[in-house]
Amino acid sequence: MFDYYSASTMEVYFVTFILLATTVIFLFTFTTRKASKRNHLPEPWRLPIIGHMHHLIGTLPHRGITNLAKKHGTFLHLQFGEVSTIVVSSPKLAKEVLSTYDLTFADRPHNITAEVVVYHSTDIIFSPYDDYWRQLRKLCTKELLSPKKVKSFQSLREEESWNLVQDIRSSMSGRPINLSHIVFSRVALIVSSAAFGKGVNDPTEFTDLIKKISMEMGGFDVADIFPSRKIIRNLSGKKARLAKLHNAVENVVNKIFAETQSNQSNTSEESLLDVLLRLKDGIEFPLTLDNIKAIILDVFGAGADSSAATVEWALSELIRSPRVMEKLQTELRQVLNGKERILEEDIQDLSFLNQVIKETLRLHPPGPLCMPRESREPCVLAGYHIPKRTKLIINAFAINRDPEYWNDPESFIPERFENNPANIVGEDYEYLPFGAGRRMCPGIGLGLANVRLPLANIVYHFNWKRPNGEKNEALDMSECFGAVVQRKSDLVLVPSF
Ligand code: HEM
């Protein structure tokens, strides 16, 4: 709600609100002040009731929080309504939190959207740190997202990446095409075929719903920052919106489940849904159908947009940097030597392609603030007392650009990874596109595979320029915040064959 107000309108709004609700203010400030007295971490100036929320008005949360860290320090306290939050924006402290204190911060904060829409937070992302979550993570490592399972979807990725090339070829050479749409729909098809089998051909309804859920999950709207005030949830319309979303999810998931049952004979690979249905009763905590739906929502929510956005950002950076584009095309064209259909093993070890992907994830991590965590017990961090149930934000966006660790950090220079061992997690935690520790992303293998092949195909088969003679380096790189940070405007480019 805050984004819709200009700064001056907000001031008038708050002054009026404060005068009218003095009693309520005392109640609210009493509870929030109590938290701050125990905690003397640096923080910007705060307002009654909303705390530091106004500092994020008109900015994207990861950029706003990074600006605050630059001014007030890389270990920061922010009060968002009732929610006491600490923000870690330096590799050194991230290492301490995600290794020494990983267990202390292994919980996720309660999220109203996950509670209502994602089957009482019984998915992997939002599940509290308990035996049920441990079982799900084991399931991911051994079955759902194991290297063997990721490999089993190789032909799916090859086929859809080839279809992507055909999509582009079917457009007229020399005419602009919307690469964002093509990439997102093909990557969504790869993920939906892996999740449900090849019978489900149109995942659009599902992906549209996931987008709506992502928007509700940001954690920065008025209902999220006053979780104990049910009245705010009702008045802000969030309760009604979430109930509607949950019903829509039920309808779409049930429809897809029914479709999958009738298409079973067409499915060559065992889909993730098949795996879950096969295993559901033979494990320590048998999975209900609702648990399975929640897990499948994660696969889509965490798996499709993150990979598609990474392909889109990589192409955006390549267009802005013709030198890097040419170097990548040369690597691909020399190795593939005119071959039409690219197989995964053809490009698996291409060092410059891998450097381009790593550099893209450094500058454009799809989850720039990782997923929030919460302390399960009190602890002392960098000399500060941190109470139980404090929300923790790991600011991967700032960490990946920390000038103490990265030369010329704002520039896209894939070669910086040539002699840098940083692979998935930086040695000094200076590189965190997938988070780290117990709650680190379990889908890295699948995610990277879903980026590598589509990107290689687009760069190998075509040359690209911007429409209407627009300058490459002037490409707008504005972002739009959701569960995944994507380009604000679609990437429209002109291919030549
Ligand atoms: C480029 C692709 C991807 C990126 C950059 C990415 C990034 C992340 C990040 C930053 C987190 C939070 C980690 C933390 O809290 O420390 C996360 C969590 C998670 N990701 Fe990914 N992810 C990607 C692809 C995938 C895929 C393909 C899947 C599965 C199909 C997946 C499933 C998950 C799950 C289930 C979690 C929650 C883990 C937990 O709470 O235990 N991700 N991811």
UniProtKB/TrEMBL annotation:
Lineage: superkingdom: Eukaryota
GO BP terms in the entry: sesquiterpene biosynthetic process
GO molecular function annotation: heme binding; iron ion binding; monooxygenase activity; oxidoreductase activity, acting on paired donors, with incorporation or reduction of molecular oxygen
Subcellular localization: Membrane
Cofactor annotation: heme
InterPro entries linked: Cyt_P450 (IPR001128), Cyt_P450_CS (IPR017972), Cyt_P450_E_grp-I (IPR002401), Cyt_P450_sf (IPR036396)
Membrane-spanning intervals of the chain: 12-30
Annotated positions binding heme: C441
Keyword terms: Heme, Iron, Membrane, Metal-binding, Monooxygenase, Oxidoreductase, Transmembrane, Transmembrane helix
This protein's record includes keyword DNA repair: no
GO cellular component: membrane
Similarity annotation: Belongs to the cytochrome P450 family.
PANTHER family in the record: CYTOCHROME P450 FAMILY 71 PROTEIN (PTHR47955), PREMNASPIRODIENE OXYGENASE-LIKE (PTHR47955:SF9)
UniProt-recorded name of the protein: Uncharacterized protein
